Amino acid sequence: MKTSEWLRAGGKKFKLADVPTSGSLDIKGKKISREEAEAITAENIEKLQELQFLMYAEHKQKLLVVLQAMDTGGKDGAIRKVFGALNPQGVRIHSFKRPTPTELAHDFLWRAHQHTPPSGHIQIFNRSHYEDVLVVRVHDIVPKSKWKARYDHIRNFEKLLTDEGTTILKFMLHISKDEQKERLQARLDDKTRLWKFEKGDLVERRYWDDYQSAYEDAIRETSTENAPWYVIPSDRKWYRNYAMSTLIRHTLENLNMQFPPPEDGLEGIVVE
Amino acid sequence: MKTSEWLRAGGKKFKLADVPTSGSLDIKGKKISREEAEAITAENIEKLQELQFLMYAEHKQKLLVVLQAMDTGGKDGAIRKVFGALNPQGVRIHSFKRPTPTELAHDFLWRAHQHTPPSGHIQIFNRSHYEDVLVVRVHDIVPKSKWKARYDHIRNFEKLLTDEGTTILKFMLHISKDEQKERLQARLDDKTRLWKFEKGDLVERRYWDDYQSAYEDAIRETSTENAPWYVIPSDRKWYRNYAMSTLIRHTLENLNMQFPPPEDGLEGIVVE
Q: Checking DSSP bridges between strand A229-233 and strand A8-9, what pairing results, if any?
């Protein structure tokens, strides 16, 4: 199974617009139905629970999952659906908000580095250090020379992490502009979700094309062998969950983790 | 004044053994007496107080001072003498001890990154991330392939810091093996300092040559334009203090810091 290529993005010629926002193909390139995908997702999640327990027990591997998306792209939903069933003791989620004054007084990777996973853990970045080449670029928050230099810093940072034992998966949840419109409208029309609505989201929507370009460049520049980007067609949530859970499962399976050997002398002991 | 070259170390041909451990020359290459040096040190420290206040007020620049030395090399004394008079609100010192289990569960730069200075501050590393290519190498704590890769990670990390606004000075306090012998003996003979003595220091002394090689390589590999190493002849403490305070003073002066402009409309106000 070529998990290594499925939904993988990057390279100089990569175009975000070439990736469909509505997914329909499985890992072998065959059409997959919603029912089939949901069945596999359920299986994946069960397997992920085992793998995460093994990871925690072995205390060697660590997994960093970077989640990026346009507003309403489904980051929160993906976290709930794919990681919600895992033991929270081994899974940490960090949401990157607008930087605090203390964070701004340091280099842009300072806050990201603090939340990288320790051995035995899965760390999810809900947004990430990539905001510093996305929103920061779209709104000219730092000069071009500075955000351009950051691609290199990001590659180096992620190389450091992987060289020292972290596995990195980066997901961009890819939705269409129409899908965003519907989701924003749904939030406006639903009193139980209206609290989640920020007027700023409507302003950001006007920068759609700028964001798409910024994503495209970020993925081109930073999708590496050790820290690949996957663009996940996310207009349909069942497909998104299927794709993400499949990729994470296969990545963890490929780590060949083992339970640590028991202490000597435990064999044959009968507790009295 | 060529501060840029004085005591500067690095380059492929750099040999630590070529640097004297007993200093006698000033920044212009002229012989300097103890009295002259002490007078200049006092002046430097007064000037450093002003510069540090200016740095704090401007809130743009940040200075990272890395201090490395063989045991008894004088790191604690240097911190007391050179930085002791500065306002502690703008100066932070972090001592790198044996890594905790939490620190070991992350990449080797994780703990260093957390303690990098925010804008307006001077941060001193008493030992540093360089221990991961020094003690770790001498005692084979990680395989050679791993510590060799760390030179690159250190260069990248320090480039990130300087690109994003940190000034870095790295000092190796250079003493002779004989001087170490005397200092260790003095600790053993002085009841008020015996508490500071660790038997491990005598064990480490047996690895003197290995440590010198490890320092030599670290300095060769990581002395860059943006993050230079200075090897400070430190057998004589007055010379060490003179050299360090001179280098820090001139580095800060070259930053051309300015007090921020006052709020509009404050001119001519008379408080009644």
A: antiparallel
What is chain A's pLDDT, residue by residue, as a tens digit (272 residues)? 455 589 999 999 999 999 999 999 999 999 999 999 999 999 999 999 999 999 999 999 999 999 999 999 999 999 999 999 898 888 999 999 999 999 999 999 999 999 999 999 999 999 999 999 999 999 999 999 999 999 999 999 999 999 999 999 999 999 999 999 999 999 889 888 888 788 888 999 999 999 999 999 999 999 999 999 999 999 999 999 999 999 999 999 999 999 998 888 888 888 88
Determine if residue A268 is left, alpha or beta; phi over 0 gives left, psi from -120 to 50 gives alpha, anything else beta: left
Closest approach of A108 to chain B, Cα-based (Å)? 8
Size of interface A-B (CB pairs under 8 A): 71
CB A4 within 8 A of CB A250: no
Provide ipTM, 2 decimals. 0.86
Cβ contact B7:B232 at 8 Å: yes
**A 51-110 residues with CB below 8 A of B?**
59, 62, 102, 105-110
pTM (2 d.p.): 0.91
Question: Which of A110, A118, A149 is facing B113, going by the closest CB pair?
Answer: A110
Q: Do B153 and A165 touch (CB under 8 A)?
A: no
Q: How far apart are CA A263 and CA A265, in angstroms?
A: 6
- Is residue A171 within 8 Å of A75, Cβ to Cβ? no
